[in-house]
Design goal:
Layout lengths: L2 H14 L7 E4 L5 H14 L6 E4 L2 H10 L13 E4 L3 E2 L5 E2 L6 H8 L5 E6 L13 E5 L4 H9 L6 E2 L14 E5 L7 H9 L4 E4 L1 E2 L5 E6 L2 E6 L2
Parallel strand pairs: 1-2, 1-3, 3-6, 6-12
Antiparallel strand pairs: 4-5, 5-11, 7-9, 7-10, 8-9, 12-13
Helix pairs in contact: 1-2, 2-3
This protein binds ribose-5-phosphate (R5P).
GO molecular function, one term: ribose-5-phosphate isomerase activity
Subunit structure: Homodimer.
EC number: 5.3.1.6
Length: 228
């Protein structure tokens, strides 16, 4: 395991330590959340946790949960006790950019119902301001996507349709993603409103005011950050 992978796992174990038997747990998506799902499976198998139910934020996490023995249920209107997920950027106030793994919409729809959203990451995800390192993923309808991108480019120029190969990337919801370049200065809440008010947009990877705390692992230890 590389040093960075070891750090991601360390952060994940800290978050899973907050899960209590009987909890309904939002299962995040990505290379860091993977370690949390595996640890939940390990704890269930070892009898260190009982009766937890996972709610997956992607097909990939659902499949992993099955593999490691975490029982799951689809999202319903009941609150989740806790959700554990990674992030692409973490601002000092714990506002986040998420969605480089393509799961932003299911993550947001699920995690907004969590009493506690715990973010796990390695130290490379910390930024002074959102947009510093990562683009902002915006999920858009496939239908009319070029028109939607035109509308977005009017105030977010410089982004691009996510297209890793010959075809655009398709989300679990059957949509496309526009990876937007964020401006140097902006008001996150205002930008979120503006993007979501754009015809053809499903949702954005801005997670504002949602995370309760973050475990951020660095070579000299795991830092625990809480929302001010
Ligand atoms: O869509 C993916 C999610 O938002 C991930 O939580 C995010 O991309 C971080 O993933 P990773 O832990 O692989 O860096």
């Amino acid at each position: 395991m590389s040093d960075l992978e070891a750090l991601k796992k360390e952060a994940a174990l800290k978050a899973v330590a907050l899960v209590r038997s009987g909890d309904r747990v939002g299962l995040g998506t990505g290379s860091t959340a993977k370690y949390a799902i595996e640890e939940l499976g390990r704890k269930l198998a070892a009898g260190e946790l009982t009766g937890i139910i996972g709610v997956s934020t992607s097909e990939a996490s659902e499949q992993l949960a099955r593999q490691v023995g975490v029982p799951t249920e689809p999202l319903d209107p009941r609150p989740l006790d806790i959700a554990i997920d990674g992030a692409d950027e973490i601002a000092p106030n714990l506002d986040l950019v998420k969605g480089l793994g393509g799961a932003l919409v299911r993550e947001k729809v699920t995690e907004v119902q969590a009493r506690r959203l715990i973010i796990i990451a390695d130290h490379t995800k910390l930024v002074g301001q959102l947009g510093e390192k990562a683009p902002l993923p915006i999920e858009i309808l496939k239908f009319g996507f070029l028109s939607t991108i035109d509308r977005l480019r009017a105030f977010l120029p410089g982004g691009q349709l996510r297209q890793p190969g010959a075809q655009p990337y398709v989300t679990d919801n059957g949509n496309y993603i526009y990876d937007a370049r964020l401006p140097d200065t902006f008001d996150p809440a205002e930008l979120e409103r503006r993007i979501k008010g754009t015809l053809g947009v499903v949702d954005t990877g801005l997670f504002l005011g949602m995370a309760e705390r973050a475990f951020v692992a660095a070579p000299d230890g795991v830092q625990e950050l809480t929302r001010p």
